[in-house]
Amino acid sequence: MRKKLALILILLTALTLTLAACVKDAPPDGGSAPPADDGNAGDDSADGEKAPYSVTVENGTAYIEAGSYFTAYAGDDMNGVLSNLVADGILSGGGVYVYGQKEYASATVPEAGAGKKLGCGRITVEGETLFFERKPLKWQVLSEDETGYYAVATEVIEYSVFNEAGSFSTTSGLLNNGKEANDYYASALCEWLNGEFFGEIFSEAEAGYVTSFTLMSVQEIYGLGLALPDDGEFKGMVRAVRPTDYMLARGERVLTAESGYFSPWWLRDAGAYKAEARIVGAGGVFADERPVTVTESNGVRPLAYFRKAA
After folding, report:
1. Are strands 96-99 and 210-214 parallel, antiparallel or unpaired?
2. pTM value?
3. How far is the C-alpha of 71 from the C-alpha of 131, rounded, in Å?
4. Is the dihedral of CA 181, 182, 183, 184 positive or negative?
5. Which parts of the chain sit beneath pLDDT 50?
6. Which residues are CB-neighbours of 220 under 8 A, at least 6 positions away?
7. Tens digit of pLDDT for each residue in 94-116?
8. Helix, strand, coil share (%) of the chain residues, nearest 5
9. Using CB atoms within 10 A as the burial measure, which of 22, 45, 90, 154 is most buried?
10. Pairing label, strands 291-293, 276-280
């Protein structure tokens, strides 16, 4: 009898230890202190309102995470899964697909997109279809005041023309509405950026905290401190900006260098002629006018003002 009781006690002890080992992190009890602020929380107001974005500091520079867009290659395994599902007709979406509560966009690699090395190391091949996951966007904070932050996208996240060919007279440089073809506020680029694209990247909650959404100007490059030191070989330059993997696979125009790929991107400044607007070159040069025709496709790197919680 004593042997049986001893055996039962041993078994109960072993069971208790096994159950304890299965629980990795016990939930805190009601008296536990709240977790410390790790710097990733959204901006809070005095009455507890929280902005739907996060602010972090990396190496002395503040960044905002807000909005989302198709940027990162899905990876070879997921690419294979999605390719098969689309080929079998199980997934449909006309280029944008939802799978496993995530959203993906597909791109069939054109000749201009072939041979590009994606972030994961994969080299693109002409004619193949690749899938890119929607990921949060990162914005570099250039200025902060009492009510919010001016921040610019850290990557070129799309490409667009300034105005479509045929939308203006090549003789007069005037749009069909009489405005100059290089007038940003009258351009198709401005309309798309503040309409369709804005709605594409920001949720309804986030949109309520973005009170300005535009492109940068030369004046703002200087005024918001994005320009490199205005002396020596870097005068009139900003740091070169990379495109996303999605832009590379689509074959958008980039500069190829030993350190990677870099994109030209639109400014909202007009060029000297009515059919020309200014860009930041792929190498980062902006101060030598850099006018290009408004029908050219260049990178889009938005400047946003994120308001703080009221």
Report:
1. unpaired
2. 0.84
3. 10
4. positive
5. 1-41, 46
6. 226, 303
7. 899 999 999 999 999 999 999 99
8. 25, 30, 45
9. 154
10. antiparallel
Question: What are phi and psi for residue 78, nearest 5 degrees?
Answer: -65, -35
**DSSP E strands: which ranges in the chain?**
54-58, 61-73, 96-99, 102-108, 129-144, 148-153, 158-160, 210-214, 255-257, 260-262, 265-270, 276-280, 291-293, 298-300, 303-307
Tell me the average pLDDT of the chain.
86
Cβ 310 vs Cβ 49: under 8 Å: yes
Question: Among the residues of the chain, which ranges form H helices?
Answer: 2-22, 76-87, 188-192, 198-201, 204-207, 218-223, 245-249
Cβ atoms of 206 and 53 within 8 Å: the answer is: yes
pLDDT in tens, 38-70: 344 455 554 578 999 999 999 999 999 999 999
Q: How do 102-108 and 291-293 pair as beta strands?
A: unpaired
Question: Residue 260: which residues within 8 A CB-CB, separation 6 or more?
Answer: 242
Task: Kindly write down the DSSP assignment for every residue of 56-74, as one continuous string.
Answer: EEETTEEEEEEEEEEEEE-
Residue 289 is predicted with a pLDDT of: 62
Q: What is d(CA 87, CA 200) in angstroms, rounded to the nearest whole number?
A: 26
* Dihedral angle of Cα 92, 97, 101, 102, to the nearest 10 degrees: 160
What is the maximal distance between C-alpha atoms in the chain?
108
Convert the pLDDT of each residue in 13-39 to its tens digit. 333 333 333 322 322 222 222 223 334
**Tokens coding 139:** 């914005």
